Amino acid sequence: MWVCTKQPPAGDPESSQLTVFLRLFDYLDGKNSREERLPMGVPVSISAEGTKASRNLTACFFLPEKVQANPPTPTNPEVSLVSRPSLTIITKSFGGYANSEETWDAETDKLRKLVTASGLSFDPNVVYWNAYDPPLKFWGRRNEVWLVRV
User: Is the pLDDT of residue 17 over 80?
Assistant: First the structure.
């Protein structure tokens, strides 16, 4: 189970990554049906569906194991619980801070080129961008791009 929120289109004042992060963090901080504070799970995952010019971004936090079977309901209507299906993914890890769509797009393009050259097929309409470290971890950061194998 994941707790998720859609990111508004670029140019919208609510589109910043910080706004979306805080919306999800509020859920973990007790703004849920049980007023339960939850530890942050990993990864933080953003699904990017569609083309660069017209894509929909959905940011999600993986819920901790202790609430996977029965998570509290979000109280914010912009936040929802999502059960992602089992996926077979092709992934590429990279370090550093991945805090812009340009960084994620560059890493996604690298992975797509490698996968295409290898002859594997993947869904071209969705990519997952995943970060595993807290913002104040400065070295040895782990990020991953996931393509869905078909």
Answer: no
